[in-house]
Specification:
The chain has 208 residues and is mostly beta strands. It is built from 1 helix and 16 strands. The strands form 2 sheets. Strands 1, 2, 5, 7, 8, 9, 10, 11 and 15 form a 9-stranded antiparallel sheet that branches. The protein has a 7-stranded antiparallel sheet with strand order 3-4-16-6-12-13-14.
């Protein structure tokens, strides 16, 4: 009830805080209460990670601005019009995204019938550059590509900045997730389209 472990590297783990609980449902999952529950993941990457993929199966209880993963990556459910977005912070502290004002199209709308009450798979691949300001972003919903675009950081190089603490289910002390997460994955490379689709097809039977 206190820790969740990395199945590839057992030395990395997350610490469960307050009301993030493991529920033996169908399927079993981590249940976040929308008010203070979160999992502290520590450092997911080393300094200036330029390429990565994040993926999660999420069931939102409410349609509000809430965080799946945060710190140097913001992976969020947007209240209007109900979409998933990816923001990345470089070592200069600069974010790019629709929400941050650079308006670079790094989010997509979730269909109304999938926004609450059902598990969906959301994934994002970020291909940055430690010696340049541009990065490629691809985003997926249930194994199908929704976003394929190039973005530019307003300052500094296109990478995930320092190696500070990441939060699963919150933006530190705000924007708490109200819902469930199962099978959260982080990769230190950009998965191909076929790999994202394969992962979705391999796990979707758990959530039908």
């Amino acid at each position: 009830t206190l820790k969740t472990f990395n199945t590839v590297n057992p030395s990395q783990f997350g610490t469960i805080v307050t009301d993030a609980t493991w529920e033996d449902g169908s399927p079993p999952s981590f249940d976040f209460d929308g008010s203070d529950g979160k999992i502290l993941l520590g450092s997911l990457f080393g300094q200036n990670q330029e390429v990565f993929t994040v993926s999660a199966w999420v069931n939102f209880t409410s349609n509000s601005y809430q965080m799946i993963l945060s710190d140097n990556i913001w992976f969020a459910n947007y209240e209007a019009p109900g979409g998933i977005g990816l923001d990345v912070k470089n070592s200069s502290g600069d974010y790019y995204d629709d929400n941050g004002g650079l308006n670079q199209g790094t989010n997509f709308t979730i269909p109304a019938d999938l926004r609450t009450g059902t598990f969906i798979n959301v994934a994002a691949c970020y291909e940055g550059n430690n010696s340049g300001a541009t990065a490629k972003v691809r985003m997926y919903l249930n194994g199908e590509e929704q976003v394929n675009t190039t973005v530019t950081h307003g300052s500094g190089n296109a990478h995930c900045g320092d190696s500070s603490t990441f939060y699963l289910g919150s933006r530190n002390t705000s924007q708490f997730l109200n819902g469930n997460i199962q099978s959260f994955h982080v990769y230190n490379r950009a998965l191909s389209v076929s790999e994202v689709t394969h992962n979705y097809n391999a796990l979707k039977g758990r959530f039908n």
